[in-house]
Amino acid sequence: MWRDPGVSADSFYEIRPECTDVPISRFKIKAGKTLSARKWHAAFTPEGYLDIGKTLSRIYRGCHGELWLAGKHKGVHPSIRGEVWEFLLGCYDPKSTFEERDQIRHRRRMQYATLKEECRQLFPLIGSGRFVTAPVVTEDGHPIQDPLVLKETNSAKGLDVHHQDNNNHSSRIATNSLQKVTDKIVVQWLLTLHQIGLDVVRTDRTLVFYEKQENLSKLWDVLAVYAWVESQFLIISVLEFVKRGNFRCTESSVGVTSQLNVLASVTQVIDPKLHNHLDNLGGGDYLFAFRMLMVLFRREFSFCDSLYLWEMMWALEYDPDLFLMYEMPESASEKAVGSKGKSKSIRQCGKYEREFLKSGSKNASQAPLPISVFLVASVLKDKSSKLLQEARGLDDVVKAKKP
């Protein structure tokens, strides 16, 4: 029987021609399998209600063990990823209408514009089309008059950018207008701006998209505004991290340490020989997998495959209560604390979340382990033979993890 070999999705994420060491993408767009624009739009009623259960099953149908490594899952067509991800990440309630989502979208954009202007008042470079990669204030709040800082804030650096607010003098006064800052929250935020700038410069440098200064500066604006909001509403951010389980803190563990402990236990069960080998190499704490869990495999796979893997995990872990968590965190907390049964429809949940619900262990104080832990275990299992034969140190383990 003839099978569609699929079409590479790399054309949607153009790579700079001089970058020759980029991993080859395994994800293929396959007719009848990959969630297409036609199937996506057909999942909505005339009013705009989305059949999220059917959509999720189309994304991860056929998901078994290590098959994701071979790119044999369905996935989402790149042309509709933005729309689909808004639901997978809980930005919108599937039970909302087109009109309701338009209202939410407009309100959020207005909120972002307000917050961005608030940040611009604190540091005029926000929204100017430029960004900084050097510290702008000292830890005690004094502005830094370093030549590099002045160059970044007072000059367009010869780049053909369109200033987002057409405020040509904003960058000239960004540093010069700063007085000694006494508010500790503002100081901490200003101290992060150059760190964000460094991360922005390093982000996916192989993509043509990030060759444009305009795109880099927009990313910097978004992250800078997010950092400002997070500094003021840290509790809300922590709640989300706890929900995801990525930065959960307990008396015995901080951050992903607990996930690494589980990874060690899982590997010991599915491949005890490999676990013993890693332990003998000094990797029994599995810290070599720290980066994989923190950035969700972004450095192990191509950009295209990373997006594909993320949407697979989000679909499998999908919880219909995510929207409540963003829009009405108080209501979501009360629902979690007061709920004794499975009030949510299991059909509306992702496969991984559904199995966790069926286990009867869902409660307010316990969150399921991220599926990424088991995916790392799958990678190690898949590379077991190579690791056992070739790994003579932890550096070899890190190199062998790459496909």
Description:
By secondary structure, the protein is mostly helical. It has a domain at 101-232. It is built from 18 helices and 2 strands. Helices cover 49% and strands 1% of the residues. Residues 156-173, 235-254 and 337-342 have low confidence and may be disordered. The longest helix is centred in the first third of the chain and has 25 residues, at 98-122. It starts with 6 loop residues before the first strand and ends with a helix. It is globular and about 60 Å long. Helix 4 crosses helix 7, helix 6 runs antiparallel to helix 7 (213-232) and helix 9 crosses helix 10 (272-280). A two-stranded antiparallel ribbon has the order 1-2.
In short:
With 403 residues, the protein is an all-alpha fold.
Shape: globular
Low-confidence stretches: 156-173, 235-254, 337-342
Mean of the pLDDT scores?
78
Estimated share of beta-strand residues: under 5%
Total strand segments: 2
Q: Report how far apart the termini are.
A: 29 Å
Radius of gyration: 23 Å
Roughly what percent helix? 40-55%
Order of helices and strands: EEHHHHHHHHHHHHHHHHHH
| Structural class designation | mainly alpha
Q: Can you summarize the main beta sheet? A: 2 strands, antiparallel
Q: Number of helix segments?
A: 18
With strands numbered from the N-terminus, the spatial order across the biggest sheet is 1-2
